[in-house]
Write a structure and sequence with these properties.
- The protein is built from no helices and 68 strands.
- Among the domains are: 103 residues, Sandwich (Immunoglobulin-like), CATH 2.60.40.3080; 355 residues, YVTN repeat-like/Quinoprotein amine dehydrogenase (Methylamine Dehydrogenase, Chain H), CATH 2.130.10.
- The N terminus is likely disordered.
- Strands 1, 2, 61, 64, 65, 67 and 68 form a 7-stranded antiparallel beta sheet that branches. Strands 3-60-59-58 form a 4-stranded antiparallel beta sheet, with no helix packed on it.
- The radius of gyration is 32 Å and the shape is globular.
- It has 767 residues and is an all-beta fold.
- The N and C termini lie close together (8 Å).
Length: 767
């Protein structure tokens, strides 16, 4: 007779995402690039992971600790994305990959290595393209990415023979421009094998092609194009094909593509007739690299992982894929999303840091910089940028050069640094403030002025070496300062602050402001005509040297962070949400000229009358050579490293763990937590009692009795599998029913009542 113990009282949960619940938690095992994971099938605590630069990771304790060693030597860009542990002689490890050029084999669990397949042309494995025959593991196969050659080993990978070349027909133009059929080798993306008939092999191309062999790889027949995009026919790589252990006639394949407009493309494909026909199952036009399958509750549990070659900055030009991790427990009909529950990270510190300012001393020499001390230099008018960050880690908000070699940067905590060799070396200056400096300028080599947080104004009269605080008359943050003649300076800041000095910054007076919006940038064309931009679409103009300011309606209600005028008529304003405006009539009207941008734009400047630089969040830098009509991206952030390379189930059948190798590290899916616990409820709504024999009494008090939301009851085990579920057709406020569970095993379970978007959960033990 089973008994039941209540462990945890009700938790009311608000569920978001594609499916209800988050059955597992991802744990990172390796904080480095990982491209494949293999386990010793006789001892699942022993793991091997392929890394980058010929590095292999090995663990004896299920990933708690790792040895790191290299194959022959460490270095280079080799990606070890095919790792196999021989299932009989588990001392044997075979490794291949991209930019590796060969197949290496170890007979002592990775301690030493020997090359077992080399050619004049490097051997390359693109996706998962190396495998062994599960009925005779001494027989192994691999498909060469570059040559289309199929290799076979009959001695556990110790030696390999080329047994065939997969060829495909394409049309090319002859010397008269007429199309003709031409036979070329297939660029192999992956290989597959059906376990019911291991003489049936699959070779899958980078053009979406599926080829099948019925004689263990000696001859090949074209089966189907899974996808035929409109443009580049080689940009649809089938990188993984797996068949279900439940039903070997059921298989899954994923497609990776790189170019956003090369559609239709990508997705998860499925076969139910052993690979003779394939159909799109899910994720249309989404780039996928990894897929894994196991039997689950009489169906297939399928995991997929996405891949995007470039985390491109334009939202509408980004291939969807990176960061996508999904699970289906019904063969791909419905999906759980793990996208927001994995701790992705950036491999390179400051790779996505926001850029706050752009400054050019001459038509050629310029600097941009920003968050975390990022600093970039250009010597060709912003066409090419070189990283100049070095040991600077404070946020940089401003820069100013008064000669080709001598300049300054300044920013958080009041730091100011000076260079006398065009930015090669920076030395600290004495700023005499700890307040953040937002902007600075110089009249000449001797006299400089800087403004910042809490009304900070500091001036220097000794070439920027030392700075003296000046009373500004305000405690508002001052964001921008501009010298408009040898005596006159204007500064602007938060809450509509405008102040003016007529003695080059020694004393300051407040100027009447027509707005209370935070002001971000002041810019003067000449001694009389100037402009200010700010929050809430604020744009103002003066024609008398800044004594009076007039608001000009832009019909915009977002922050306008910076502006630049080439002459009295032609100017630009940039702001949040990728906004860029251009005027050709001195600000009377504006055209929005660059709409696809998503991220905030922080500053704009021009090197000359036609060449400009536009910068913003997410390490964005743009370049124009036609007065801002068109812009070219020169720098952009890469985003979190979230490309999946391998998903593998390892463990005792039915109790496997899922491992994920990615550019963000190696993860394992464990520590089950079938629901997202937002808050505890003081009152129990769900009760479970053992009645007699196999019957249990379920009671539930509706969370929202007035709405009569649909009810669904289920029992979930600690692996996230649904053991029992049923819909409740009862409109009463208090629900009670009997549940018969004759076959439930002893263990810990979660009983859940789903009411609309709420879940009431009770953790229990059945004995």
């Amino acid at each position: 007779m089973k008994k039941i113990y209540i462990l945890v009282c009700l938790m009311a949960i608000i569920i978001t995402g594609i499916m209800i619940g988050q059955p597992y938690k991802w744990k990172r095992l390796i904080d480095a690039d990982a491209f494949d994971i293999a386990a010793n099938p006789q001892n699942y605590n022993t793991l091997y992971a392929g890394g980058i630069g010929r590095v292999i990771y090995r663990s004896w304790d299920a990933g708690r600790t790792w040895d790191t060693f290299e194959i022959i030597y460490r270095g280079g860009a080799a990606i070890l994305n095919n790792v196999i542990v021989h299932p009989i002689d588990t001392n044997v490890i075979i490794v291949g990959g991209l930019l590796f050029g060969e197949i290496q084999r170890s007979t002592d669990m990775g301690e030493t290595w020997n090359s077992v397949l080399t050619r004049t042309r490097p051997v390359a494995l693109n996706g998962k393209a190396m495998m062994y025959d599960p009925h005779n593991p001494d027989i192994m196969y691999l498909g060469d990415f570059m040559t289309g050659d199929i290799f076979r080993s009959t001695n556990r990978g110790a030696s390999w023979d080329s047994i065939s070349t997969v060829m495909k027909w394409i049309k090319i133009l002859d010397e008269n421009g007429n199309p003709k059929d031409t036979l070329i080798p297939l660029t192999i993306g992956s290989m597959g094998m059906r376990e019911d008939s291991t003489n049936i092999l699959f070779a899958n191309g980078t053009g979406g092609e599926v080829f099948m062999s019925h004689d263990s790889g000696f001859t090949w027949k074209f089966i189907q194009y899974l996808v035929e995009p409109q443009l580049e026919q080689t940009d649809c790589e089938i990188t993984r094909m797996v068949f279900s252990p439940r039903d070997p006639l059921t298989g899954y394949a994923v497609i990776t593509y790189l170019f956003f407009n090369n559609l239709p493309n990508g997705g998860l494909y499925k076969t139910t007739d052993g690979g003779y026909t394939w159909f799109l199952q899910a994720f249309k036009d989404t780039s996928m690299w990894a897929v894994a399958v196991r039997e689950y509750n009489g169906d297939d549990e399928v995991f997929i992982g996405g891949y995007t070659e470039d985390f491109y900055v334009l939202e509408n030009e980004r291939v969807p894929g990176a960061g996508i991790v999904r699970r289906s427990q019904d063969g791909g009909k419905t999906w759980y999303s793990y996208d927001e529950n994995i701790e992705w990270w950036n491999k390179n510190y400051r790779s996505d840091s926001d850029i706050y300012f752009a400054h050019f001393f001459s038509p050629k020499l310029g600097f941009i910089g920003g968050k975390d001390g990022v600093l970039w230099r250009s010597v060709d008018s912003g066409n090419i940028w070189r990283n100049f960050s070095y040991e600077i880690y404070d946020d940089i908000y401003t820069a100013h050069f008064y000669s080709l070699s001598t300049g300054f940067i300044a920013g958080s905590n009041g730091f100011i640094k000076k260079t006398t060799n065009s930015g090669m070396i920076w030395r600290n200056c004495n700023s005499n403030t700890t307040n953040t400096i937002y902007n600075m300028t110089f009249l000449d080599s001797a006299k400089g002025i800087a403004v910042g947080a809490n009304g900070t104004i500091i001036v220097s009269i000794n070439e920027g070496t030392d700075w003296t605080p000046i009373q500004s008359g305000t405690y508002q943050n001052l964001r921008s300062v501009k010298i408009i003649d040898p005596n006159t300076v204007i500064a602007v800041g938060d809450a509509g602050t405008i102040i003016k000095s007529t003695d080059l910054g020694d004393t300051w007076l407040a100027i009447s402001s027509p707005t209370t919006a935070d002001l971000k940038k002041v810019f003067f064309i000449n001694e009389n005509i100037g402009f200010i931009s700010g929050d809430m679409g604020t744009f103002m103009k003066t024609t008398n040297g800044g004594n009076q300011w007039q608001i000009i309606n832009t019909n915009i209600n977002i922050a306008l962070n910076s502006l630049y005028f080439i002459d009295e008529n032609t100017g630009f304003i940039c702001g949040n949400n990728g906004l860029l405006l251009k005027t050709t009539d001195g600000g009377k009207s504006f055209d929005q000229i660059y709409k696809p941008l998503k991220y905030d734009l922080n500053d704009i400047t021009f090197c000359n009358s036609t060449t400009g630089i536009l910068i913003g969040d997410f390490k964005m830098a743009y370049h124009t050579t036609d007065i801002g009509n068109t812009w070219t991206i020169k720098l952009y952030g890469f985003g979190a490293t979230a490309n999946m390379w391998s998903l593998r189930y390892w463990g005792i059948p039915g109790k496997e763990k899922l491992y994920m190798a990615s550019e963000a590290g190696l993860f394992v899916l464990e520590e089950p937590s079938p629901v997202i616990e937002y808050k505890n409820d003081s009152e129990n709504l769900l009760f479970v009692w053992h009645s007699n024999s196999n019957e249990y009494i379920i009671k539930y008090s509706r969370n929202e009795p007035d709405k009569l939301l649909p009810l669904h009851f289920r029992i979930v085990d600690i692996l996230g599998r649904v053991i029992s579920e049923q819909s409740i057709n009862n409109t009463n406020q208090n629900i009670e029913f009997l549940l018969n569970l004759p076959d439930i095993s002893s263990g810990v379970y979660l009983c859940q009542m789903i009411e609309g978007n709420y879940i009431s959960t009770l953790k229990v033990i059945f004995e």
